[in-house]
Fold this sequence. Notes:
Layout: E1 3-8, H1 17-26, E2 31-37, E3 47-50, H2 61-67, H3 72-81, E4 87-90, H4 94-105, E5 115-122, E6 125-130, H5 140-157, E7 164-168, H6 179-189, E8 195-200, E9 212-214, H7 217-243, H8 246-266, E10 274-277, E11 282-285, H9 292-307, H10 310-317
Helix pairs in contact: 1-9, 2-4, 3-4, 5-6, 5-10, 7-8
Amino acid sequence: MAVRVAVDALGGDRAPDEIVAGALDVASPEIQPVLFGPADLDTHGLEHVVTIDAVEMDDKPAEAVRGKPDSSLVRSARAVGDGVADAVVSAGNTGAMLAASLLHVRRLPGVLRPAIGVVLPTRVGASVLLDAGANADARPEHLVQFAHMGSVFAAEMLESAEPTVRLLSIGEEAEKGNQLTLEAHRLLLGEPGLRFEGNTEGRTLLEGDTDVVVTDGFTGNVALKTLEGTIASVLGALRCEIEGSTRGKIGGALIRPATRTLRSRLDPETHGGAYLLGLRGIVVISHGSSSRRAVANAIRLAARGVEHDVVGRLAARLPQRTPSTS
């Protein structure tokens, strides 16, 4: 049976054309994208649910979800909560997608806070960083739960047999960090079911010294955007150097296969999006500038999450705790 993925056709800077194109690229007997958008949307034959509103990037998340219940973003999230779709993908307003998912998809029992899990392309494979932006403020117990979520993700999606966990800090020593990091480190040391191996620093995020990197959403988002910007700048500078002289062009021709492989591995569009973990359904959030390639890969990522039963495995793994009201 095909995995049905609800797609917010109006989400992102390049919507709806690139969103629809990406959905078309990935449509198959195994994956069935369902587009949510206005009546005049050119779907090229894909299944279409008509919506009458759109959440803009500068809308306030909670207000947008309450005030625009028939928007493409809210309706696509609600489709998962209602069981009409198996997963949802949106490149739209991240805060609004989080709010809509909390309202309609809802948290798994015992989940304190959902977290955005992003796959990092490391030198020796891949790791997952979370939280990458869902929670600007977090408590130590939230980071412990993020570690469990990341471990399940790494085992199921990254095929890590016994995932290791590290805490992002300003030094590897246990006594370094702010109050949140120090207390989270103490809790992680005594947490059963986790292979916690201490702290890690930002400079090693792409080295692959662990399977799961845990932090709060503010720090994680800053780290992620710093990595993305640095990678783009370095690759751009390398291209300019290669194209700037005859010698550079000759050398560039010799290393072109290697640079293409490296660019593909480091490109955020290779994965297409990030999971919002801790919910009762699969929610994938894509970058606002996503191209058709990124959208297609995000839909594939969502389908893989359904096929691997990430939600069910998270529900079985997470220690039962009293949900937070904050």
